[in-house]
Design a protein that fits this description.
The protein is mainly beta. It has one domain. The chain has no helices and eight strands. Strands 3-4-5-6-7-8 form a six-stranded antiparallel beta sheet, with no helix packed on it. A two-stranded antiparallel sheet has the order 1-2. A hairpin with a 4-residue loop joins strand 7 and strand 8. The radius of gyration is 15 Å and the shape is globular.
């Protein structure tokens, strides 16, 4: 489960995750790729879904560095980077909203 909350006063998105059950990843025991599907339920009752992919790399016993990109159903794109601690069942990192820039030649 991934639950996102609206941006706080510093315009930061808050995210919590729960990892349990089966997962599918491609790669060796130390690094590889993953794909994800998620749903977020906002404080106002609305919900959004996301689909994305990323990479993982072992940084020690039960610790994994992750980087991912997610396309959200409301049109936003988010990049995340952080570290997952399986023993503590936590992920600490930063989410960045990706903005498209358009370049016009004159």
């Amino acid at each position: 489960m991934i639950a996102n909350r609206p941006a706080d006063e510093r315009q930061q998105v808050l995210r919590s995750r729960e990892f349990s059950g089966l997962a599918t990843a491609v790669g060796g025991p130390k690094n590889g790729t993953f794909s994800l599907c998620s749903a977020a339920y906002l404080d106002n009752g609305d919900g959004v879904t996301g689909i994305g992919q990323g990479t993982y790399e072992s940084t020690g016993k039960h610790r994994w560095r992750t980087e991912n990109f997610v396309q959200i159903s409301d049109g936003r794109r988010v990049r995340g980077e952080g570290e997952m601690d399986l023993a503590a069942r936590s992920w600490k990192g930063t989410l960045f909203e990706m903005r498209m820039s358009l370049f016009h030649s004159v």
